[in-house]
Design brief:
The protein has about 375 residues and is of the alpha+beta class. The chain has helices at about 40-55, 100-115, 140-145, 150-155, 165-175, 190-205, 210-220, 270-280, 290-295, 360-370; strands at about 60-65, 70-80, 85, 95, 225-230, 240-245, 250, 265-270, 325-330, 335-340, 345-350. It has ten helices and eleven strands. The strands form three sheets. It has a six-stranded antiparallel beta sheet, sandwiched between helices. Strands 4-8-5 form a three-stranded antiparallel beta sheet.
Amino acid sequence: MVIDKFGRQKPGCRAATLAAILFFVLSAHAVAQLVQPAVEDLRKLDQWIQQYMQDNTVPGALVAVASKGKLVHLQTYGWANVELQVPVMDSTVFEIGSISKQFVAAVVMLLVQEHKLDLDDPIGQHLPWLPSEWLGVTVRQLLTHTSGIPDYEEIRSYDVYRFRLTPEQVIGIAHSRPIDFQPGFSWSYSNTGYYLLSLIVERLEVLPLGKLLAVRIFQPLGMLQTRMADPEAIIRHRASGYWINKAGELINRNPTETSSTLGAGGLLTSVYDLVKWDAALYNDQFLSDKSKKTMWTEALLPNGDGTGYALGWNVEPYKGLRKQSHSGQVAGFVAHFSRFPEQEAAIIVFMNRYRVSSNRLSLAVLHTFMPNLGPIPE
């Protein structure tokens, strides 16, 4: 792999598409199909990504397309570590921020399947020491961001994740503001909800979240590079995270303490592990069809308005395509994971720079591999 002075792979040395896509699946909702792009179209996508990275001072990136457990396109760019000049490789692991939420949601659904938990349980049944005005909030409302419990990140700013915090401290920050609305009657994204869900599943399974996720999800599915992103742990192939200071200079990020995020945004993973996760969601060996239907059903408000969000997943369609997705942003990193089940396609994007748009790269890949959607959006 050859890297130029800007930290980008030279065009002639970039990994080619790993496998041709040998199928065409028509969507039931839109005229769109997954295709093998022409060489020229892949070159244009490659140039588009390189230009985006240069314009936004992104050190490194990875983009991939998968279909039911098989990688059909994988491309790496730039540096996993700028100081040591380590390039991004297919084995590089990136922090994924709020994509972590879907794994918490999956554990909840496993516990529902096992009759250890009900989505309409009041959270006070499991965490009776919470503030009194929170006790009647349901597990489902935490999952769908309809609880009204304030977001502790919003209150203390993103810097809250730099510090080792106890659950009592996180809850104290969120409780410093009255509940935002009557539970179930509006929608507001709240990291506090997924922090509380993490505490609930830890209590039910009597395991810390990292071990619980490993035992219930990562080990059974062979996701051996996925774990809590403990800043003190030695983690092979871990990418370094960066952001930009006020002078526009690339700087090292302040690491996120997993005790202050738990399942709200504390995981890291690799492209290969997310491909395994995508594959597991196509059958009922991991989650039942009933659980998956529940997990991907949009939450509706009492007035009938949709929220675009289900249980740990955004479910708003895109240009008529059924879409299940989530983005992630955590100090030094952004990520995007989107599934198009009717096309049997998944798109994965990782970048190791805070506050850039992973969604823009995801759409660029999507429009290249589904050209009926039109050119790459500006």
